[in-house]
Amino acid sequence: MRKEYEALEGEAPPETLDAALAAADRAEKRLREAIEVLPQGVVFLDEDGRYILWNRKYEEIYCRSADLLEPGARLADTLRVGVARGDYPEAKGREEEWLADRLRLMQEPDARHEQRLSNGRCILIEERRTEDGGSIGLRVDITDLKQQEESFRLLFDRNPLAMLVHDPESGLIVNANASACRLLGYTPEELNGLATRRLFAAQAWAIAAPMLDADLATSNANWQMLRRDGGRVETHVSTHASTLDGRQVTIASIFDVTERCRIERRMEYMARHDELTGLANRSHCRETLRELLHGAVPAGTVTLALIDLDNFKSVNDTYGYRFGDALLIDAALRMRDLMPPGALLCRIAGDEFAIIFRKSSLTQAELVIKAIIAVLCEPFHVHGNTLHVGATAGMAGAPFDSGDHETLMRYANLALYAAKTERRGSCRSFEVAMDEAAQARSRLETDLRKAVRDDELEVHYQPLLNLETGAIECCEALLRWNHAERGQVSPEVFVPLAEELGLIDKLGRFVLQTACREATRWPESVRLSVNVSPVQFRNGNLLSTVINALSGSGLGAERLELEITEAVLMEHGPRPAAIIRNLRAFGIGISLDDFGTGYSSLSYLLNYPFTKIKIDKSFILNLHEEASSRAVIRAVIGLGRSLGLTVAAEGIESDVEREYLRAEGCTQGQGFLFGRPQPGSMLQFPGAQPDALDPV
How far is 600 from 441, CA to CA, in rounded Å? Predict the structure, then answer.
């Protein structure tokens, strides 16, 4: 600029020229100061492409060519030197072509363009022509931005997650990565420019469209998207608003959740259905019953029926679970064929099923149940074997019996229990008396637990006499429960209950330990007899319980005998026989109680080392009326004598019965004629006198 003023030197007065030159210097200084604060590189060229002015940022950008920068130097020359030095890697191998393109862009600037330098930097160039034919150029270092773009490009293109770039204004896809192409079955060329709505099911697009126009980094919505072949994929879509080439776009990340949704649906199905039969399970049954009875819309009459297969356990025990499973599947199919419309068939336990009847009367439901019982009584043909089971059912209805789903389930179960107790293969409807009995039983269970915990039970003793001499030879220990409110509770009531509640082991230990201690105060000639439950044999710790009781009391093993019933011997496996033989090895006597009432007593006498058999009192009661009872008694006594066993008779209540048994050769007698069960403190052992104990 100063040179232009110097050209006027001969045309103006000296003082005017000096003022003009000073003004030019000030303007140039201000211009330089202005461009120095700019973050971009700035350069001014004249009409011949020569350097006029540039800022420090420009020098920093072209640091390798800074030694060539001086006023009047031609940009074309500095570019040529830079190409020769290797400052512009894009020119390698096409130097002249590159130079020509670069100079053309300077002479005819119409758009921004990028330039790569040998130091790895990327420069954005923007140039504008001035009125005098020169040019102003801006240089922006966009290396960091390009690296970010490259990173995004790599992340986008190589991302295993399907990604689309959606243009909300046009509604088109402007880019898609390879994962999206694979997921949707399109080529990149087919996806680019495709209307985004074509990727969504028609019913979903109205909701999906606003989402694709929004910035939703997280979304809980699943969408069905359409593949090119018409198939559908379950997806989870999140969106992010961004800018691409100066326009607002939405980057959509697409998660393929097809398999996850399939698994979730399968898990939801399995959570509500039985895996073996495919029927609704217990959870589904309870949920349906609750919805019907407590839902917003009353369901009207609802009947719940519980069906239990009879003798199913024996199928598993005899043939194995593979046969049992096949039988359950067949049973489910038979029942399903008989289901009326609206009924729900469920498998709620191993061999227990439930049916929920909607808007059916108890009578209608009972007809279906009876048909089911009939069809389940027919033979099952499983793996070449013919199997027979059966079914028993119990029913309860709403709102007649109860409007609460839990109570209705309990009532149906009580009806089923009553049916199984009375007659298998039958169907019972709930009655109030069933609930009353269940409540009474529950109270009895509570009282029994308390009695066991607080040592409220006692051991009484009933003598067994030698029918020839009248001397007491043995005393049987009998458990007694004198309830504070109920009075004397029969052992026939509380002993089976103790077995069900798992208390029989504790009671057995109590009786053995108490009776053994008491027996040590008796004459040496008097033995102790203690009843043993089949459950004690089944639990497997009977032998140690007996030995501990003997050692703890000091009672000799030969003075103890254990009474067992045929139920013990009917247990499967070798355990009962092994326990009995081990007990005999210690010298403990084994008595077979209730002889003659079972099915296989004779074979048991031959296979087990018994020392005594007890004739059941039912034969003694019928002694005078039935000749068959006398024949059985005579046969048992003869059998016992031939096997060398002591034979004892229970239930003797008259002198006639005592004399008959003594005449037949019966060894011992027990009954009210000789004494009732009484506490140990009341027992007396006089000499061998026939009437030592007064008849009661």
Answer: 34
What secondary structure letter does DSSP report for 692? S
Average pLDDT over residues 226-239: 85
* Position with higher pLDDT, 598 vs 418: 418
- Is residue 253 helix, strand or coil? strand
Cβ atoms 393, 307 nearer than 8 A: yes
* Lowest-confidence segment of 190-194, 196-200, 593-597 by average pLDDT: 593-597
- Structure token digits, residue 373: 């019982």
Q: What crossing angle do the helices spanning 575-585 and 542-553 adopt, rounded to 10°?
A: 20
Tens-digit pLDDT profile for residues 150-180: 656 656 666 778 888 888 888 899 888 888 8
Condensed to tens digits (0 to 9), the pLDDT of residues 203-214 reads 778 878 887 877
Cα(74)–Cα(86) distance, rounded to whole angstroms?
19
List strand residue ranges (DSSP E) for 132-186, in order: 135-141, 162-167, 172-176
Q: What is the largest CA-CA distance in the chain?
A: 174
Angle at alpha carbon of residue 160, lines to 154 and 165, rounded to 5°: 65
DSSP string over 23-80: HHHHHHHHHHHHHHT-SSEEEEE-TTSBEEEE-HHHHHHTGGGGGG--TT-BHHHHHH
The residues, any chain, with a CB within 8 Å of residue 588's CB and separated by 6 or more, are 546, 557, 558, 560, 561, 562
Does position 538 have pLDDT exceeding 50, yes or no? yes
Nearest alpha-carbon partner for 392 in 370, 410, 407, 408: 370
The pTM is what? 0.56
Distance CA 650, CA 593 (A): 9
Continuous H helices in 232-361? 258-272, 282-294, 312-319, 321-336
Q: Radius of gyration (Cα) for the chain, nearest Å?
A: 52
* Highest-confidence segment of 207-221, 255-269, 520-534: 520-534
% of the chain exceeding 70 in pLDDT: 90
Using CA atoms, how far apart are residues 666 and 467, in angstroms rounded to an integer? 7
Instruction: Quote the CA–CA distance of 12 and 8 in Å, as a whole number.
Output: 7
Q: Which of 412, 102, 423, 111 is nearest to 286 (CA)?
A: 412
* Region of poorest pLDDT, from 69-73, 276-280, 594-598: 594-598
Output the CA–CA distances (angstroms, integers) from residue 52 to 134, 248, 631, in the order listed: 10, 40, 144
Name the nearest CA neighbour of 684 among 512, 559, 521, 477.
Answer: 521
Average pLDDT over every residue of 595-616:
77
- pLDDT on residue 696: 33
DSSP secondary structure letters along 490-508: PHHHHHHHHHHHT-HHHHH
Q: Which residue has the tokens 């210690």?
A: 586
Query: What is the enclosing helix (H) or strand (E) of 589?
Result: strand 589-595
Given the structure tokens 């039985």, which residue do they identify?
274
HSE value, Cβ hemisphere, 13 Å, CA-based, for 71 = 5
